[in-house]
């Protein structure tokens, strides 16, 4: 008798717990408690006939399972109002630099699934010439997120026939698009980027491959480290565009590397020669994944120059 | 990263409420919104799922007035606690200056507290920050349920499990009733402003 009383009390407590978890949205926990209740009722002879109680508890469990399945299905991000989108844009742009802040705001919109609005923003930035490579890649990414690879490919075609992007940039974007399409399992043949028609810029590439550059040395002409000499390692090279990594620790170096700035008399070290030429900062981007996450990739274009002095 | 406008002497910093799903982060902000009416500088914005789970974040702007000759503005955020919203949590955590970790005192949420704290540690590390360096306070929420004879973890156990290594200030609380909410926020603000003061040396 005393044993059964204790069971009854335990069941009451369990039901109370299960109900509380349910109201707090802790559905798994609630279900677990109800299952325990069910088990106790079944084990206890006195409750065996209590069909009604059993069916009530079973109903509760079914309800919870339905809610759990619904939560599992919630995957799509809702389209937010313009006001909320503006708020997101403002709250998630941190850079002091106005252009960088605009890019961050647009990237945040995409991250929160507001792809249509993100597209509008990135297109506006691209037209203004703000970080064109980043803007263009994000435009393609947003099209793909809206699951329209065709729109992405058409957009690329459109850029090919326009003059928003340089050939160098288009080539970069083409390999990017090829890569993301392949990752999505989309097979498509992308139109090639025509070679430069101007004789001048052709020269460097027509020599076959440009010298492989391992590192560069330069004197900083502005920024907090102005005047100091830096040596940086090259991580990637495509023709006369080279990429360098700047560690997040040396972030203040970036102030010396404003896109568009021309660096005079940079020393380029290759395995067979050292030469000197001018170069322009193309852009820098923050690395988002992998072991160097948080660091920056800086792209520098070596000027096709008659002053290419072999030292 | 706090935004410090030297010219206008305005400092704006970001406090994020972090913790396992359903632990009471949003309830904290709702209480603050009601109780700090004078300091709120706008509506509280919540972007939720169809239920009342946070989908993106809650946002509440506060103004603390002048401190050491500087106008201090605070942005309070909550992250979505559900495990599946991992990338949103990273996004909301960007540029954070101080963290309130809201732990759930319910015994059934013991493991989730630990997992969420580890998630916070990882996400801070990804931002080149550290859980051991950032201004942080812990809150042991839902203490009111002890009276309802719902199984809760003793504060000492939570202290050992969650705060054994961190050794940061911690507060038992009931966000629903409002007890401990103010103390938690005030301590986090104090630590955050002290930290920024050291970093930015804004007061002269
Ligand atoms: N009894 C009690 N219930 C609380 C307390 N704090 C929150 N709750 C309840 O717990 C549930 C979840 O609270 P929320 O504030 O939405 O939790 P959250 O941490 O924002 O959850 P997510 O947005 O999913 O991460 C709600 O039903 C609240 O009413 C508390 O101190 N005591
Ligand atoms: Mg919430």
Description:
The complex is a heterodimer of chains A (311) and B (204). Chain A is an alpha+beta fold and 311 residues long. Chain A has three domains: 2-73; 82-183, Serine Threonine Protein Phosphatase 5, Tetratricopeptide repeat (Alpha Horseshoe); 203-310, Thrombin, subunit H, CATH 2.40.10. Chain A is built from ten helices and seven strands. Chain A has helices at residues 2-23, 27-43, 51-73, 82-91, 98-111, 115-128, 132-145, 149-161, 167-183, 199-206, and strands spanning 213-219, 229-238, 241-246, 262-270, 274-286, 296-302, 309-310. Chain A has a six-stranded antiparallel beta barrel with strand order 1-2-3-6-5-4. In chain A, α4 (82-91) packs across α5 (98-111) and α6 (115-128) packs antiparallel against α7 (132-145). The longest helix of chain A has 23 residues, at 51-73. The model of chain A is unreliable at 198-209 (pLDDT under 50). With 204 residues, chain B is α/β, with parallel strands linked by helices. Chain B has one domain (7-200): 3-Layer(aba) Sandwich (Rossmann fold), CATH 3.40.50. Chain B has five helices and eight strands. Chain B has helices spanning 25-35, 86-93, 110-126, 155-163, 181-200; strands spanning 3-5, 10-18, 45-48, 54-67, 70-78, 98-104, 136-141, 170-172. In chain B, strands 1, 2, 3, 4, 5, 6, 7 and 8 form an eight-stranded mixed β-sheet that branches. Classes of the chains: A alpha+beta (311), B alpha/beta (204). Chains A and B meet through α1 and α4 of A and β4 and α2 of B. The complex binds guanosine-5'-triphosphate and magnesium ion.
């Amino acid at each position: 008798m005393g044993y059964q009383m204790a069971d009854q009390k335990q069941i009451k407590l369990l039901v109370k717990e299960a109900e509380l978890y349910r109201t707090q949205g802790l559905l798994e926990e609630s279900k677990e408690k109800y299952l325990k209740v069910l088990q106790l009722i079944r084990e206890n002879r006195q409750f065996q006939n209590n069909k009604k109680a059993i069916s009530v508890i079973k109903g509760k469990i079914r309800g919870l399972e339905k809610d759990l399945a619904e939560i599992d299905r919630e995957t799509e991000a809702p389209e937010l109002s313009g006001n909320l989108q503006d708020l997101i844009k403002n709250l998630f742009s941190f850079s002091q630099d106005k252009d960088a802040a605009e890019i961050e705001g647009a990237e945040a919109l995409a991250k929160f699934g507001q792809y249509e609005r993100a597209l509008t923003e990135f297109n506006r930035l691209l037209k203004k010439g703000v970080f064109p490579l980043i803007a263009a890649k994000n435009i393609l990414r947003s099209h793909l997120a809206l699951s329209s690879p065709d729109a992405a490919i058409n957009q690329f075609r459109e850029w090919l026939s326009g003059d928003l992007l340089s050939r160098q940039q288009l080539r970069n974007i083409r390999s990017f698009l090829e890569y993301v399409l392949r990752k999505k399992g989309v097979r498509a043949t992308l139109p090639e980027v025509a070679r430069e028609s101007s004789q001048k810029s052709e020269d460097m590439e027509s020599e076959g491959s440009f010298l492989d550059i391992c590192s560069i040395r330069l004197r900083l002409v502005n920024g907090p480290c102005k005047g100091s000499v830096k040596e940086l390692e090259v991580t990637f090279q495509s023709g006369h565009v080279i990429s360098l990594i700047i560690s997040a620790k040396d972030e203040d170096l970036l102030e010396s590397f404003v896109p568009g700035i021309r660096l005079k008399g940079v020393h380029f070290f290759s395995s067979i020669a050292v030469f000197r030429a001018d170069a322009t900062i193309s852009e820098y981007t923050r690395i988002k994944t992998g072991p160097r996450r948080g660091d920056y990739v800086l792209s520098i274009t070596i000027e096709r120059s008659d002053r290419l002095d072999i030292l | 990263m706090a935004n410090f406008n030297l010219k206008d002497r305005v400092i704006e910093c970001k406090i994020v409420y972090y913790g396992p799903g359903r632990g009471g982060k949003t309830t904290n902000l709702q209480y603050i919104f009601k109780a700090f009416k004078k300091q709120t500088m706008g509506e509280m914005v919540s972007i939720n799922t169809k239920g009342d789970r946070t989908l993106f974040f809650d946002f509440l702007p506060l103004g603390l007035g002048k401190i050491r000759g500087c106008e201090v503005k605070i942005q309070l955020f909550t992250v979505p606690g559900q495990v599946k919203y991992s990338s949103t949590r990273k996004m909301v955590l960007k540029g954070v200056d101080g963290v309130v970790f809201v732990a759930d005192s319910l015994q059934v949420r013991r493991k989730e507290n630990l997992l969420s704290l580890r998630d916070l540690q990882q996400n801070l590390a990804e931002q080149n920050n550290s859980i051991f360096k950032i201004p942080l306070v812990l809150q042991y929420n839902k203490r009111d349920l002890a009276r309802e004879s719902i199984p809760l973890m003793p504060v000492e156990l939570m202290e050992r499990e969650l705060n054994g290594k961190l050794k940061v200030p911690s507060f038992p609380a009931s966000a629903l009733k409002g007890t401990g909410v103010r103390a938690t926020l005030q301590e986090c603000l104090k630590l955050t402003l002290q930290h920024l003061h050291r970093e930015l040396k804004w007061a002269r």
